[in-house]
Protein 1
Amino acid sequence: MTWIRTIAPQAATGKLARVYQAAIRRAGRVFGIVRAQSLEPHILLASGGIYQAVVLHPDSPLPRWFRELIGVTVSRLNDCHY
């Protein structure tokens, strides 16, 4: 749960609503990490692009599972529940 104001999926409009709809299609729900950036949809889209470039890049020297493991480990060390 975030400690900042966020926009709930049912209250989203415009660009944010489209981002939320894509998240629901992809993952079945809108995770907190997405809602935490809901006040600035353009930043949310940019951070999603960075994530895709880092984790989903097909030419990375590290396998995807290892890149995702790094993310999980860092989140755990930071006591982040995402």
Protein 2
Amino acid sequence: MSGVLLDRAALAALIPHQGNMCLLDAVLAWDAQSIHCQARTHRDPQHPLAVDGELAALNLIEYGAQAMAVHGGLLARTGGGVAAPGVLALVREVRFEVARIDDIEADLDVRAQRLVATESGWLYAFDVHVGPRLLAQGRVAVINASSADETSDTTGAT
């Protein structure tokens, strides 16, 4: 993969997803608002999210969410810190153009664009392509886990 900025080991150091749950293989480009990653793990016959040997397109949301986590990790590292842990809170306007992805032979291009960032969370848009072919797109809201814990503490929820 030419043009790789971060390989699998380097990007895995930025996110909590480890081992075969780290679905991304490389960061190809990123800036303050967006990230472009590549993945080939969808072809792994031992994929941890596969059911009966098939990997549903629904799992592309997780690929997008991991790209968002890597982006947050890169931004935090640039600022001299580490990313706050996040909790996936909302998935909206998701569109799938395929039913499954384990039968796709090409690498996946996973992109995420940060739309909103606050202390309490982030809103991203994501899309996954194979070349010019769109596989999935949508928006994901992530809550800062520290903020979520504080909210639970003040409401008395356990």
Protein 3
Amino acid sequence: MSQCNAALNLRVGVIAGITVAVLNVIYAIILAIGLLTLPSPELQIQNPWFTVMELLIIGIAPAMVALAVGLHAWAPVERKSYAQLSIVFMSMCAVVTSCVHFVILTLSHQPTFAAGSWPTLVFAFRWPSVVYALDILAWDVFFPLAALFGALAIQGMGLLGVARNVLFGSAALGFIGLSGVPLSDMNVRNIGIIGYVLLYPIAAALLSIVIRREAARGAV
């Protein structure tokens, strides 16, 4: 039974890795369009692009957790503790970011919440605001920790070595982005976007290939 469960987890990891990579490519395209169509650099990305990005993030978040589960199923026994920590921190990232973007989608435009000047301090996706601070917590604290421990769970050369190094790079950029908070410079924080929008999907695609090979061999 445990062997069947492990094989299932491997298959989940394969599907999750592909899902993360594909959705992030779409997200990157929408992000580029949103930035290119900004009426002013001081404004946040406008609709419909902003709403599409919110929905994509809500879809990406659980796929990232599923990939961490697949990585745990694949990881060598002596490195499974690292993979478990990756699951924990990726789950924390997913929960926080899903709450942030669901609240923005469902409440920020409601008349009850939109009235007055205070909603900009809560819902505006620019610094300082409550949702932006929570987003930083998710993507510049929890995500890089998840990527770091995910990288430590990987052992091997070739594609595995590349995936491990890409995850290390993704984690490093996330932590660099966090320095934008004490510096009060969100341009520095945006460095972290490269880590989770560009580098992490590459690692996800590579891990999907590796885990698929493992699943095909029936090795657990």
